[in-house]
Q: What sequence folds into this?
């Protein structure tokens, strides 16, 4: 029961960020296994918070995470803020992110 309540709180936080965002960052990262990570992040209290995350594996499988689907057996939405100066991420056009997200 506590886990369900905490999950609902987390989902509500990410949903509020998603619905209230006026500035969005779209980023991509290639991992060492050949997969590509696509990220949509928004500023919140001085941090850049991931609100949508999609992984396209080297085998072509797509896993998507957001407030609507926080986690599954393959992974989950990161709870770590992004540091654009330290994290190896490439800025991409919003259209590139949306094309993959809605695939």
A:
């Amino acid at each position: 029961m506590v886990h369900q309540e905490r999950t609902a709180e987390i989902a509500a936080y990410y949903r509020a960020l998603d619905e209230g965002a006026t500035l969005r960052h779209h980023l991509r990262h290639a991992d060492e296994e050949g997969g590509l990570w696509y990220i949509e992040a928004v500023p919140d209290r001085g941090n850049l918070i991931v609100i949508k995350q999609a992984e396209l594996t080297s085998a072509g499988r797509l896993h998507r995470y957001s407030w609507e689907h926080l986690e599954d057996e393959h992974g989950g939405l990161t709870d770590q803020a992004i540091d654009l100066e330290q994290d190896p991420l490439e800025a991409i056009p919003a259209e590139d992110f949306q094309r993959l997200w809605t695939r």
The radius of gyration is 14 Å. The longest strand covers residues 47-56. The first helix runs from residue 2 to 20. The CA atoms of residues 50 and 79 lie 8 Å apart.
